[in-house]
Amino acid sequence: MKIVAFILSSFIALNSAFAADRPNILFAIADDWGPHASAYGTAWVKTPNFDRVAKEGLLFNHAYTPNAKCAPSRACILTGRNSWQLKEAANHICYFPPEFKGWGEALSEKGWNVGHTTKGWGPGVALDANGKPRKMTGTAYNKRKATPPTPEILGADYAENFNDFLKAAPADKPWCFWYGAVEPHRGYEFGSGVKKGGKKLTDIDHVPAYWPDNDVVRNDLLDYAFEVEHFDRHLGRMIAELEKRGLLDNTLIIVTADHGMPFPRSKGNANVQANHVPFAAMWKKGITKPGRVIDDFISFIDLAPTLIEVADLKWSDTGMAESSGFSLIDIFANKPVHSRDHVLIGKERTDIGRPNDGGYPIRAIVKHDSVFIENFEPTRWPGGNPETGYMDCDAGATKTFLIDAHRKNPADPFWQLCFGLRPATEFYDLKADPDFVKNISTDPRATAMRDQLHTELKQQGDPRMNGKGDIFDKYEHASKGNVGFYERFMRGEPLKAGWINQTDIEPKPLP
Predict the structure, then answer these.
(1) Are residues 119 and 257 in the same domain?
(2) Which of 42, 417, 401 is CA-nearest to residue 206?
(3) How far is 487 from 15, CA to CA, in rounded Å?
(4) In whole numbers, what is the pLDDT of the chain averaged over residues?
């Protein structure tokens, strides 16, 4: 009996030592946050905890999601594959294909303790081959509640849920926790940034050229900032808890968001505003020369290879499908790397509201000085059909202002930039036109970028490149009540979508 006890204790000690050699992982992801943080010089958003991660780790200037919508973006994060390589998971509110495993599941299978709070992968349905629910981001910790600063902010105590996870974490296992806030997703309490956040409309130093510069838009931006700061405060409490427990030095902390802000011409599109995300990483035992600012382009498809390497696992042993990304470990270690000078982005069906449940397919390539965008169905409305309320754009003060302004003046340029029909191709010189409002698709550079885009998409097996892109429209929507929404709505069925304002619905189709 003593021999058995000795062997058992030795085994536990070895396991504990092995666990200590591997870092823990805190993956913090906001919902609908663009690269607006004080670390990036945005004066009207105060993010001291994100800034700390950047200062004591790395700040990435050019981080992008391949798809600027919640479910497909998170699918790219978990699998290391671009959304056009993920079949049904290219779409929002989909049935996640069982064949694509994510790193949350892979780490769990390899002995890691994996958990999350609130929003992991989703929205959608993820079942395994036997029809059982998958734990894409581990066990949920959602019991703790708190009084939110506005009625529109979720009453969840994210930090205390993380603390519950740490209390339950076995000492002999490394852990990975997914902090999935739902802020700054809409809706917002209008005026909360000024009334509760102490902000001033004059704090905003730049309103993008595709929106009017007025008090409505500025208030909307400050309300968005107030919710970003709510996410950051909980991040700070989590970091403080790691310090208290002596876990901070050997915890890799990654802070980002699934895509850009929930405003017209951003979330649900494919461009430099929609797909550009904040990204900072801190790991005191694993990042060499902290405080660096990284100008290389990185993509969310790089996260899975990075975390699998951090976990000291071989990709071939995870059962995950081949990734199109590369590990960021060499960047962490300040080693020479082959810099990526561009990223590929795109979208398929991100929301309902078009005839036959159609999406708005886009592929694009972004470089430091330019972006080329290809719209495969330019006769479709990019923001969703006006007669169903532009359902591919979340409700909000800026959206409603633009729609009302267009009703008063059909020639309004801001409505056209955000909701109007688009040409088949777009090209923008980001040095001369950083807000990408002047399409110069006849520029000779556009042809070279289109060729590069198509070459890489063909290598990745994108169905859009072999004439089979309509498969994305044929994939079933996982919300049964929304299947055939457009046709049923136009027949007069009493349907209502909670993420649009009813006043945004046009009384009849626009020409």
Answers:
(1) yes
(2) 42
(3) 58
(4) 94
